[in-house]
Each structure stands twice: as C-alpha cells, then as structure tokens.
Amino acid sequence: QVPPVESGGGFVQPGGSLRLSCATTDSWFRAFSMAWYRQVPGKARELVAEITVDDHTTYADAVKGRFTISRDNAKNTANLQMDNLKLEDTAVYYCHVDSGHPYLNWGQGTQVTVAS
Predict the structure, then answer these.
(1) Own/partner pairs for 25-31, CB < 8 Å, 24+ apart?
(2) Which end of the chain is more exposed for a tag (fewer CB within 10 A), N or C?
C-alpha cells in the first residue's frame, strides 16, 4: 500500500477555478471514503469535502456551492473541483483515505494559492 497522491494545485486569481485530483490504489478506492482537507500555518487541518463509496457527499459550510467532490471509478481518483475561489481558500490541500491506517492514509499535500 502507498499513500494517496494529490495533483492539480497551483496559483489562481480570485474568482478562478482549480481542479485537484487524488489517486489511490484500486482496493482502497473501492473500500473507503475519501476526503479533502486543508491547512494554513498556525491552524488545525480542516475538512473541506468528503465522498463515500456510494457517492454521498459532505461539504464544509465555507465551500458549499463553490466546490464539488466526485469519484472517478475508472481512474481510482477523488476529484475536487473548486470554483469561484476566494483569498481565504489559500492553503495546503491534503487528500485523506478513511482506511484507518496509522500513517499511509494521508497524501503529501498540494499548495493552492489564491491571490490578485
């Protein structure tokens, strides 16, 4: 087993869009919920969005109506489409697989910067 791998971060102006992708193994993808968290320096990591194996989704209030989480069964990925980005969305975004593994359930993180 390997940790999930994130991609798609970058720099964008306010109002813009980015799409994050998180890839995991086939066995974990089929068995476990996946989620995106984010963290800024000095603050705790917070849940952004989660999706279960049967596509039930949960969103933080701060991103409802702007972010969409989805699963791609062909690629074993959980994707986060982020639209109408705001300055306060700037953070390192982490993928999490709800496997219960002590240290392989987190990705390395990808930086999202929203600035003028």
Answers:
(1) 25/1, 25/76, 26/76, 28/1, 28/4, 28/97, 28/99, 29/71, 29/73, 29/76, 29/77, 31/99
(2) C
What integer pLDDT is reported at residue 116 of this predicted model? Answer: 94
Q: State the residue for tokens 């999202």.
A: 112
In 1-116, beta strands by DSSP E:
5-7, 10-12, 18-23, 34-39, 46-51, 57-59, 67-72, 77-82, 91-97, 110-114
Q: 77 with 71: CB under 8 angstroms?
A: yes
Report the first-to-last Cα separation within the chain, whole angstroms.
40
Residues of the chain with pLDDT under 70: none
